[in-house]
């Protein structure tokens, strides 16, 4: 078992004792019966004893219990007397402070002090006695001076500005007299106790969960170790060593050390303890994974050993069935070569039979995998022979179908040649680039005829499945030829539609050009040159359209239709650049001569 676990248990017990003590902070307070509570950490031990003695003496003389508190940051502003009184009254009631207690409360971080319910003494005088030392940062001396004022001892006069001054650091110091003396410290003390209780509960829950996981690991480790001892006679040396290493890795994973280191600092340094606990949990999960892998390996090993004999029998039956199928296929003219699986089977069977004497090197998992592969080969052989028999039966019908498809494809090709030539004459090669040419289809038919010849030779040799595959390839090529006229028809329809659209676009562009030329007298030389360039480009497009390269011309039509170089800002066409729109409208009585030149299609 893991040697670090007892140390973990020791630390857990120690931590439980510490947490139990922290759960009852009142016990610690009761042991000292302190009336000085320095939660702000401003007093040393010696200073706290000095202030304690001074307040005890003042309390004995006045007959009134006195308390002094130095609180950390309260969150109450120094100038918010109403909030202080309301809060302190509620805190005093919550903490059951004696009704006759006199209190002095100092909030160094917030810069204010409060005293209340001091019998027989001016609280203003007590305040003035304390403030000079407080302003110097000497809170022990200030509290002793306040206790002396309560006892009636003379106090050296301080700075006249003390009553209106503040604590060191610029904080405003105000004097407040509460009807019921109390301090915000009580709220801080209660919050601290709540936090301590929450941390204690969290620690207890965390350690409870940790203990559960450690118990789980302990049980798993015992189970796997016992499993290994039971399986040693079965395991080969390599697998046995691998399992032992996995168990050893789990035992020495180091999670116990992390938990042991975390236990004593869980309350003093919870952040560091949390990191160690997290590291320990990760290591523990890894150790459990190692044990699970070791257990699974032994399960697989045992299952393979138990299944091996049955798998050998099944393999032998499959081999015999494959041999019988070979004999039947050869009798029917199938070219079935003998697939002799018996030598390999005999070797595997001998190894399995001798495994008890060869435990040091025999792995039943490897032997089982080889037997299953042999079984699959025999089964695949039977399936291939069944396919050969089926092909032999279907071959006559499929050959007849292939021959008919080739005849129809030849007839289709002759008609296609004429249709393709008419399409070329009418629309050019660019319009037919997505459909095959007659030469391509003719080459496909020649290949189909070759498939027919090879299929006949394969059938004569008894390779019926191969012959069937070749016949199907020939049929597919023939069908491709027969489907091509439909593709040609669709391409011609698309080309015809585009050509008609091109003619309409050319007429539209020429009409716009004529309208623009009618306004040429309004153009400046630069604009006239641009108009000449446009006319030249349109002439080239017209020549290409009627010269056979009509698809390229369509692209140029589209570019000219989207050319805005003659329109743009209408002011650029006016006589002075700022007047009317070049010819009394949008470029010549409308959108460039009454059309859409520049503002629409052009």
Question: How would you summarize this macromolecular structure in one to three sentences?
Answer:
The chain is built from 16 helices and seven strands. With 602 residues, the chain is mainly α. It has five domains: 34-183, Diaminopimelate Epimerase, Chain A, domain 1, CATH 3.10.310; 193-304; 317-386, no CATH class; 403-496, no CATH class; 519-573.
Give the secondary structure arrangement, pairings included:
Blueprint lengths: L4 H18 L2 H8 L3 E3 L6 H18 L3 E5 L10 H15 L6 E6 L4 E5 L6 H13 L3 H13 L14 E2 L3 E2 L2 E3 L7 H47 L5 H15 L3 H8 L7 H62 L10 H12 L10 H64 L10 H23 L3 H55 L6 H23 L2 H12 L41
Parallel strand pairs: 1-2, 2-3, 4-7
Antiparallel strand pairs: 3-4, 5-6
Helix pairs in contact: 1-7, 1-9, 3-6, 5-6, 7-8, 7-10, 8-10, 9-10, 10-11, 10-12, 11-12, 12-13, 12-14, 13-14, 14-15, 14-16, 15-16
């Amino acid at each position: 078992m893991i040697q670090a676990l007892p140390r973990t248990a020791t630390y857990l017990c120690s931590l439980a004792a510490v947490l139990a003590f922290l759960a009852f902070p009142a016990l610690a307070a009761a042991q000292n019966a302190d009336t000085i509570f320095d939660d702000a950490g401003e007093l040393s031990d010696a200073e706290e004893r000095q202030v304690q003695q001074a307040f005890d003496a003042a309390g004995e003389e006045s007959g009134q219990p006195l308390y002094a508190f130095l609180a950390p940051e309260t969150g109450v502003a120094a100038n918010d007397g109403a909030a202080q009184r309301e809060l302190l009254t509620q805190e005093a009631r919550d903490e059951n402070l004696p009704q006759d207690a006199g209190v002095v409360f100092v909030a160094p971080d917030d810069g204010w002090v409060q005293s209340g319910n001091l019998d027989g003494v001016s609280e203003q005088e007590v305040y003035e006695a304390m403030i000079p030392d407080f302003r110097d940062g000497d809170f022990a001396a200030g509290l002793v001076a306040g206790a002396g004022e309560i006892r009636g001892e003379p106090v050296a006069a301080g700075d006249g500005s003390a009553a209106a001054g503040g604590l060191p650091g610029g904080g405003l110091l105000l004097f407040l007299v509460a009807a019921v003396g109390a301090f915000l410290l009580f709220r801080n003390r209660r919050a601290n106790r709540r936090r301590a209780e929450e941390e204690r509960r969290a620690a207890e829950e965390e350690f409870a969960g940790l203990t559960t996981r450690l118990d789980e690991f302990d049980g798993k480790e015992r189970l796997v170790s016992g499993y290994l001892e039971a399986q040693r006679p079965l395991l080969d040396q390599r697998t046995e060593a691998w399992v032992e290493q996995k168990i050893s890795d789990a035992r020495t994973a180091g999670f116990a050390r992390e938990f042991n280191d975390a236990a004593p600092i869980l309350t003093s340094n919870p952040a560091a303890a949390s990191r160690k606990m997290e590291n320990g949990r990760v290591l523990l999960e890894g150790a459990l994974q190692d044990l699970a892998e070791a257990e699974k390996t032994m399960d697989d090993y045992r299952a393979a050993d138990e299944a091996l004999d049955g798998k050998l029998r099944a393999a032998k039956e499959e081999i015999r069935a494959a041999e019988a199928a070979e004999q039947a296929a050869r009798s029917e003219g199938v070219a079935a070569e003998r697939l002799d699986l018996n030598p390999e089977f005999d070797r595997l069977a001998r190894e399995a039979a001798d495994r008890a004497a060869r435990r040091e090197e025999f792995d039943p998992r490897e032997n089982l995998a080889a037997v299953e592969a042999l079984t699959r080969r025999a089964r695949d052989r039977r399936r291939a022979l069944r396919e050969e028999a089926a092909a032999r039966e279907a071959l006559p019908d499929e050959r007849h179908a292939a021959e008919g498809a080739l005849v129809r494809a030849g007839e289709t090709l002759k008609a296609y040649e004429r249709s393709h030539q008419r399409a070329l004459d009418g629309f050019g090669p660019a319009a037919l680039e997505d459909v095959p040419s007659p030469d391509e289809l003719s080459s496909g038919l020649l290949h189909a005829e070759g498939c027919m010849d090879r299929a006949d030779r394969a059938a004569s040799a008894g390779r019926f499945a191969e012959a069937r595959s070749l016949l199907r390839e020939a049929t597919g090529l023939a069908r491709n030829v027969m489907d091509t006229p439909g593709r040609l028809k669709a391409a011609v329809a698309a080309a015809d539609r585009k050509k008609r659209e091109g003619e309409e676009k050319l007429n539209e562009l020429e009409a716009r050009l004529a309208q623009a030329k009618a306004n040429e007298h309004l153009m400046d030389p630069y604009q006239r040159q641009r108009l000449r360039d446009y006319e030249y480009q349109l002439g080239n497009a017209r020549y290409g359209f009627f010269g056979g390269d009509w698809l390229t011309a369509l692209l140029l039509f589209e570019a000219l239709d989207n050319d805005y170089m003659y329109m743009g800002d209408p002011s650029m066409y006016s006589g002075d650049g700022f007047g009317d729109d070049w010819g009394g409208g949008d470029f010549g009585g409308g959108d460039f001569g009454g059309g859409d030149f520049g503002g629409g299609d052009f």
